[in-house]
Design goal:
Layout lengths: L11 E6 L6 H10 L4 H11 L4 E10 L2 E10 L7 E2 H10 L4 H22 L7 E2 L5 H16 L4 E4 L2 E2 L1 E7 L2 E5 L2 H6 L5 E2 L4 E2 L3 H10 L9 E10 L10 E9 L5 E11 L7 H10 L4 E8 L5 E9 L4 H11 L6 E8 L2 E9 L2 E10 L2 E7 L1 H11 L3 H14 L10
Parallel strand pairs: 1-6, 7-10
Antiparallel strand pairs: 1-13, 2-3, 4-5, 8-9, 8-11, 12-13, 14-16, 14-17, 15-16, 18-19, 19-20
Length: 407
């Protein structure tokens, strides 16, 4: 699926906002804050590293904004190095949901490959340091379990802030972003975003392995949102990862149509309004006229008629009958359309219909029917423009504005 395209209507989407950076514990905190079940996440982690860690959450503020802080308490001594093969064996042997196991294996495989490239050794020979510790295993397995628990079918993410400066690691002082983060960012949009390490190897691996992107917030009907806090609380930005969770909005239906066209230079211009009325009465989806300059400098008009496929023959005959053209061109086209309904509003005791275009349960457009506005102006003895403004105001008072819920 194209990550910049639309999801199938109704699919559950989660979008990660990593524009302030990303770490594994922050992402897991955001997913828990968005509604993932902590007990299910704990059970998945315990299946991989039994009785080795405890997960705690607490509400905090970061730059004045509420967020959830996840802490991983190590309950037993952790060896300083872990082989990729050992982590893989634990994941394969653990009693995990298949979706959790598959995601976790993919993330650690990507981490091993990146560490191997950085150190110039095969991925199978990689000894993990920070990313092999118990808390990082908990972060990776926990995020994968939270995604499964939330029923996320499409995961998307923004560009990632990676930071700048230097950071202390097992191999000494490293530049920010560290080499492993750079490797894991291949093909992804990143930017500095501030000083210090804003993206950890575990965090960037989770994003670039599991998510599609980088993309802005996709079109969706929002159901929940969560913020996961980092440890620091810098004044210049909220040190959080955000997750927005929702359902893919219904895409505008695509309809097949036929575009009929004829160019005419010898028809009395007074006839054209009646031609358009006849075509619309005959079932045209739309009909319009465009002035053109024809051969030998003659002024003329191009008549275009949008027709449903099953009305194309009848409307083509109508064009030949009501104009002086000797031929009608046909072109197959498609059109994206909104669902349409009417809602009546009262303006000074007069009814005006509001034409509402909607999709995915939300109003996209709301426009008064012009014939009703003209009738209102005549009834009130006012200018049409004044009646139109009054009708728009009545529509707004009725809640018929873009973004409003449409039942």
């Amino acid at each position: 699926m194209d990550p910049r395209g639309a999801s199938a209507p109704g699919r559950r989407i989660a979008w990660i906002d990593a524009t302030a950076g990303v770490a594994g514990d922050m992402l897991l905190g955001a997913l828990l804050d968005a509604g993932a079940d902590l007990d299910r996440v704990r059970a998945a982690v315990d299946a991989v590293v039994p009785r080795a860690v405890a997960l705690r959450t607490a509400p905090v503020t970061r730059a004045g904004l509420r967020a959830l802080k996840l802490d991983v308490d190590v309950l037993e001594a952790d060896s300083p190095h872990r082989h990729w093969s050992g982590i893989r064996e634990r994941l394969v042997a653990a009693d995990l949901d298949a979706g959790v196991r598959e995601r976790a294996l993919a993330v650690f495989t990507r981490l091993a490959e990146a560490e191997g490239r950085v150190h110039g050794i095969p991925a199978e020979d990689v000894h993990f340091h920070e990313v092999g510790s118990l808390d990082s295993i908990a972060d990776v397995v926990g995020v994968c379990a939270a995604l499964v628990d939330l029923g996320v079918e499409d995961l998307r993410a923004s560009a990632v802030a990676v930071g700048s400066g230097t950071v202390r690691a097992a191999h000494g002082t490293l530049p920010v972003p560290p080499p492993a983060v750079v490797e894991l960012s291949r093909g992804w949009e990143v930017f500095a975003g501030g000083t210090g390490e804003l993206a950890t190897p575990t965090g960037i691996a989770l994003v670039t392995t599991l998510a599609e992107g980088p993309v802005p917030l996709p079109r969706l009907v929002v159901e929940a949102a969560g913020s996961g806090a980092g440890t620091r609380d810098p004044a210049e930005r909220a040190n959080v990862v955000r997750v927005v969770l929702g359902r893919a909005a219904d895409a505008a239906p695509v309809q097949d149509a036929v575009l009929l066209a004829a160019t005419v230079d010898d028809l009395d211009p007074r006839v054209w309004p009646e031609v358009l009325r006849e075509l619309l009465a005959a079932g045209a989806l739309d009909a319009w006229l465009t002035p053109v300059l024809m051969k030998k400098g003659r002024p003329g008009h191009t008549l275009e008629v949008l027709a449903a496929p099953d009305r194309a023959d009848a409307l083509s005959d109508a064009v030949l009958r009501h104009t002086s053209t000797l031929g009608v061109r046909r072109s197959p086209v498609t059109r994206d359309v909104l669902d349409r309904d009417h809602h009546a509003v009262d303006v000074d005791g007069h009814t005006v219909r509001i034409k509402v275009g909607h999709r995915g349960g939300l109003v996209v457009q709301a426009m008064p029917e012009f014939e009703d506005v003209v009738a209102l102006a005549r009834a009130r003895g006012t200018a049409v423009q004044d009646a139109l403004l009054a009708a728009h105001a009545a529509a707004v008072s009725a809640g018929l504005v873009p973004g409003a819920t449409w039942a």
